[in-house]
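Usage example:
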Amino acid sequence: MYSNTKKSKHSMSGTIASVTIVALIIILMWAGVFAIYMARV
Amino acid sequence: MSKLEEIWMTVSVGILVIFMVIVGYQTYALGMGPPSHKETIDPQKVEQTAPFDNPGLIDLGDNKYELVMTLEAFAFNPGNVEVPVGAEVEFTMTSKDVSHGVQIPGTNLNAMVLPGHIQKITQTFDEPGEYLVLCNEYCGAGHQAMFTTITVK
Amino acid sequence: MEQAKNVGFKENVLSKLGVNPQDAKISLTYFTISFATLLIGGLLGLIQGLERAGLYSLPGGFNYYQVLTAHGLLLLVVFTATFTIGYQLANLSHSFNGLLLKVRKMIWMGIAFKVVGVVLTVTMIVLGEASVLYTFYPPLAAHPVFYIGLVLIVLGIWSVDFGVFINYRHWRRENPGQPTPILAFFAMGVFVLWFFASLGVTIEVFMIIPWVLGWVETINVMVTRTLFWWFGHTLVNIWYLVAISAWYIIVPKIAGGKHFNEKLIRLVVILLVVLNIPGGFHHQIIDPAISTSIKFLHVFMSLSIAVPSLMTAFAMFYVLEKAGRKKGGKGLFGWFKKLPWGDVRFLAPMIAMIAFIPGGAGGIVNTSNQMNQVIHNTMWVVGHFHVTVGVSVVLTFFGICYWLIPHLSKRQLTPKMNKIGVIQTWIWTIGMTIMAGSMHLAGLVGDPRRTSDTTYAGHDTALSWLPYEYVFATGATLLLIGVIIQVFAVFNMMFFAPKGKTEYPVAEPEDNQPKVPMWTERWGLWAIVLLAVVAMAYVIPIVDMIVNAPPGSPPIKTW
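Running the assembly step on the lines above writes:
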């Protein structure tokens, strides 16, 4: 059980990096349209 | 759920909450909510009902205007309106037949205009020019011909 | 002991069962209808792309809006729906070791209803009696037969729905204390959501029929519009739920991994089913007659649908990273390169998943209250659903074809066909990227959707959209090539590929997983929660729309 947790901890860096990219895409796309909205107010 | 997944869910839901706080603040504190006017009208008696019995631009003073406008397949009435630079125009609109949408590309003016309902949206025209006003909800065979302009000078 | 028995049973299901030949016939019939429809719908899509860019004009007697109505209806209501049914029934047959005899009868009846319904509906469109688009908003009034066709289509779906519910109950009774196999659980989610989604449009159509027949004079425009979106948006999320059944359960197996924690998968399914219907309100953010506070409540309700998808994003990367590392992938992204990119069964759904990142993010933008004014009814929205439905859903469906169809027809996926599939996937991906990408950009500068010609007497603003529209047309051309290859592949694998056995790739759970909680199977409870969420979302606005209704609208034909 212990080794299992340890192993998965070791190999999750790609998942963290990937979901961070997902978060960045969400933020960028939202911020982009928000900026257009504000520029037109 | 693993620790990491919990962190991810907290962060990502947190991002959604921040989005909501921003648009919520604008809606409630700054009055920037989407067009949501609630008055109604008999869609078959638009021409007999004020103010749509006399559509046109009304000067409210202080460079403020009300534009009373009817939409029908496939025209805006009145069309080709002229306002001075910096005019704040409140559009008061309804439809005489089917669902229409009014949009001025390059601005935030975008609203559904449905039969039986009066819709209002305000736009300030700071830049001079000829603005395209178009119908953006399919309204029939001539939908692509339903447009007019607002000239700001 | 209980645990061991459970695992033993599952392995049995995974390895020994396949789709019963009787059920295979059903699924293949659905796929035949599905891909014949795709061919027509895809061709109509290209015609629109060309006409809009001013490169082609339809022969006399036909017009853009008629073609657009047919394109939307055929692809959104026929192609995806029939594929979904064929695929979900195969999953059920595989999981339950064959469907019940009476359920098969109900499903064949469903096919009959659906075919008759589609023929009636399409005939009216072709005759020019129903150019009302996918949304058929009253007071646009089509020929009564158009709506009768829609009723038959819904009846066709309900026959399958009830068949699935009966089969599910039967299996639960025969296997007390056992959780249903995960693919069957997904199928229940799909059909429960489908049933409740179709209630909205059914009520709407039953308001419309007496009105177009002249039995009542007027109709409540806001109520019909709201009931439409109860169904209209949920429908695409049903296709999405179907797609993620493959992402969670099929893709990991093909990638050489195990599926994610089953309890969390089931939680995602339940959340998607109970939260989904109110999402339709974000199509009405700039409508009159709905107060800003109700609209803001729906910003919250629509954004909540993103939560299970955020869980899915994590789960998929987790599963794929594990699979890639098992194959020796090193470093931050080494696992990514180790994934089986040359296998169309993986490549297509993988691109579909990646497309859901901008697709889902775009959805969050659309529902963000006043920001909707920037994009409402512009080409941005068209770009958005060509990414979400056109890639995330459709490319997953295409990927499924390459193992499911040969499995059902007892044939093989040859290396050559795999290669054709890989090429098809890339053509589709490139076509959609340039088409949907340019649609998003054109929308941001104001290009309206659903308009045959956007030159507006040569206004400067309108002319600035033309370059984008040439790009739409280029993308649409690639997509039609993609459609033709896909339809060829499907019918080749159905009738001509070499005989043989094809694996049904169902992933297994990781080792040492906890027992699947039985509370997830309480579909009665989930239905009640779904109805409670719908009540929260709809009771106040709909009562308001009825009590404070203006005099209604008579039927109008403007085409």
